Amino acid sequence: MKLASFAARVAALALAAGAAQAQVTIGVTLGATGPGASLGIHYKNAFQLLPTTLGGQPVKYIILEDGSDATNAGKNARKLITEDKVDVVMGSNGVPSSLQIAQVAFETKTPFVCMTPIALAPDKLAWTFVVPQPTELMMSAVAAHMKANGVKTVGFIGFSDAWGDLMYKATEHHAAAHGYKVVTNERYARADTSVTGQVLRIMAANPDAVVVGGSGTGGALPHVALVERGYKGRIYHNHGTVNREFIKVGGKAVEGAIAPTGPLMVPEELPANHATKAVSLDFTRRYEEKFGADTRNAFAGYSHDGVMLIGAAIPAAMKKAKPGTPEFRAALREALENARDVVGTHGVYSMTPANHNGLDERARVLVKVDNGSWRLMK
Amino acid sequence: MTGDIFLWLAQDGLTNGAIYALLALALLLVFTVTRVIFVPQGDFITFAAMSLAMLEAGRLPGTVWILAVGGLAAAALEAAAALRERAWRRLPRVALLYVALPLAVAGLAGWAAPRRLDHWLQVLLALAMVVPLGPIVYRVAYQPLASASVLVLFIVSMAVHYVLVGLSLVFFGGEGLRARAFSDAKFKLWVVDVSAQSLWVVLASVVLIVALWLLFERSVYGKALRATAMNRIGARLVGIPTALTGQLSFLLAAFIGAFSGILISPITTLYYDTGFIIGLKGFVGGILGGMASYPLAAAGSVALGLLESFSSFWASAFKEVIVFTLIIPMLVWLSLRSHHVEEEEE
Question: How confident is the model over B2-23, as a mean pLDDT?
């Protein structure tokens, strides 16, 4: 009898192992604490709403915390890949963290679905797929709006970090084609108690419009200071700033602020034929049901879209190899690179070997603070 | 640079400098009395400012939980000590100070939060929530190690700081908050519009500094603090309880931190972790004053505020670099000047 029960147990174990083998494992590292916490919390929340089967396969998520620290993010990625044998890594909030993970992914030949807009050299791009809109794509909406309104000189003030640099480069990038000149490059830190010096410098240059390269509530400080000093021109922000806390902190002063964002921030106001309306609306509704009214944010959408991309790639990869093997990771990478017309909350993704983001103009809309909330600009 | 830009920057620098001066004084006070480099000083700024902003939004700040749980922990330590020494008479006082008082404040906050009381009452409530944290932190984290070396106390400080920052993230969330201004009024001072809020900051700082000076010069408690700062052993020999002066210095430090937080909360956006950087700048101000003299520390802090303001105009990307680099020549000078004294020689 004992032998029979032992045999049964072995069989059960073997079965379980077999089932586990078909399971796709997604390793995630995020910083829901540390300086990037205001973004990381949203990225992390989204995983509570994501499906546990993708492309017909059961999926397991392993989520690690990196404290918004690039070194930790790299360590986590390495741990996920070598110890947990994940098939694909996702992460992280913050450009430095994501660059670290990209490096690890490149070395270990693991597909990396990156949730921060980073730009990689073509020879390092092979394993990395970037979910968010490139900053140039986002700021092209701002540049076009400035051109239409006859803006000739632009003052820039942004974070003294990688995000501020990205925003400055994106603003500069469109300058020639849209006929404006960037006249200041002021920097401030999120923790600064005052931006008087920087704002005075901008006031002295007296530009037609100002672009703020901050993110979240951090974008409010220069905006409020500019308004207090009597600046009359338009003030543009970027997609990192679009959330309800920004308006709560900025109050009346930030009325009229204009920013680009993904369509999921205003799905209700999108025209019925907009490509992502259904997906954006569904995700926003589910997110706000779970986390409260008005908690919608771009970051949770990136988690969602990243997982959707992986889901779209799994069926093709399953035909070639079993999850948990290097062959499967290579097949998954190839399938991701060939993903076409994957509809996410932010836009429609069509990857090519040269373009590992694959978003187009449908992935951005302009919104404006109108009576204390972000509204779609028609 | 024109004259009016100069004045604008000077005004901004003085406002920030006044805050740094307050913090430098608190850090100096705690350091001289207890030899603790009080890293969590800045966290009191955060807690007070965020608690005020949350009260204004009609929500109950998580500070009350730290207050209640911390109070109970301190009460447990005190009670254990009292039982060990069979000093039963101390128990009612412990229960009153560490259990009844924090719980009463927490209860009051719970009652007041949804009612959105008058702004001044909310300020008082925020202070009442944060200030008792000073003695509680001292009792729980520092008093058991009061005679340890400066380095050990510093490591404890770092630990307390990380605990407080972590709790701050849990209670206040990752996004920034900003409190309402006390007044939107502006005064025309020659060419510069001076906001009432920055006048408030400077005036309140000056008043507080004078009050501290009076406390040290005139009151028995202030004299006890000064005596402990000068010589711990000597102070004990003449009958000054050093545990009491330690608690008193932490009470003052928490009050100054919370007060600064409330002063700046309408001027800027504060995050769960911003207090640390502000506290650090107060520390740099204190170092500029040689970490020994109150007037020099205050002067150093005001100079730091001005430097910060002008460097944010000239080279905003390098502002923090300039501000924190200042500490290096000062430290070199301090270490060259002082003949090395073994700290354990007491």
Answer: 89
* Global confidence as pTM: 0.83
Pairing of strands A112-114, A128-130: parallel
Nearest residue to B334 (alpha-carbon basis) of B272, B295, B292:
B292
pLDDT tens for each residue of A100-146: 999 999 999 999 999 998 888 888 899 999 999 999 999 999 999 99
Q: With 90 as the cut, is the pLDDT of residue B193 above it?
A: no
Q: Hey, which residues does B149 pair with through a beta bridge?
A: none
Q: Does residue A16 register a pLDDT over 80?
A: no
Q: Is the pLDDT of residue A92 over 50?
A: yes
A208 touches chain B (CB under 8 A): no
Task: Check pLDDT > 90 for residue B174.
Answer: no
Q: Does A33 lie at the interface with B, CB-CB under 8 angstroms? A: yes
| Per-residue buried b or exposed e for A226-251, using 16+ beta carbons within 10 Å of the residue's own CB | bbeeebebbbbbbbbbbbbbbbbbbe
Number of helices (H), then strands (E), in chain B: 16, 2
Chain A residues within 8 A of B166 when measuring between CB atoms = 33
Average confidence score pLDDT of chain B:
88
Distance (Å) from the alpha carbon of B264 to chain A's nearest alpha carbon: 8
B10 and chain A: CB distance < 8 Å anywhere? no
From A357's Cα to the closest Cα of chain B, the distance in A is 28
Of A37, A191, A220, Cβ closest to residue B169: A37
Alpha-carbon gap: B207 to the closest alpha carbon of chain A (Å): 22
State the pLDDT at residue B346: 42
Q: Which residues of B touch A190 (CB under 8 A)?
A: 176, 271, 274
pLDDT, tens digit, for every residue of B194-222? 778 888 889 999 999 899 889 888 889 88
Q: Which residue has the higher pLDDT, A283 or B267?
A: A283
- A196 vs B9: CB contact, 8 Å cut-off? yes
Q: Which residues of B touch A39 (CB under 8 A)?
A: 174
Determine phi and psi for A258, rounding to 5 degrees: -115, 140
* A to B CB pairs, distance under 8 Å: 108
C-alpha closest to that of B324 among B265, B277, B267: B277
Q: Which residues of A touch B260 (CB under 8 A)?
A: none
Query: What single DSSP character describes residue B192?
Result: E
pLDDT surpassing 60 at residue B278 = yes
Three-state secondary structure readout of chain A: CHHHHHHHHHHHHHHHHHHHHCCEEEEEEECCCCCCHHHHHHHHHHHHHCCCEECCEEEEEEEEECCCCHHHHHHHHHHHHHCCCCCEEEECCCHHHHHHHHHHHHHHCCCEEECCCCCCCHHHCCCEEECCCCHHHHHHHHHHHHHHCCCCEEEEEEECCHHHHHHHHHHHHCCCCCCCEEEEEEEECCCCCCCHHHHHHHHHHCCCEEEEECCHHHHHHHHHHHHHCCCCCEEECCHHHCCHHHHHHHHHHHCCCEEEECHHHCHHHCCCCCCCHHHHHHHHHHHHHHHCCCCCCHHHHHHHHHHHHHHHHHHHHHCCCCCCCHHHHHHHHHHHHCCCCEECCCCEECCCCCCCCCCCHHHCEEEEEECCEEEECC
Decide: helix, strand or coil at residue B191. Answer: coil
Report yes or no: B312 at the A interface, CB cutoff 8 Å. yes
Cβ contact A194–B12 (<8 Å): yes
CB contact under 8 A, B178 and A220: yes
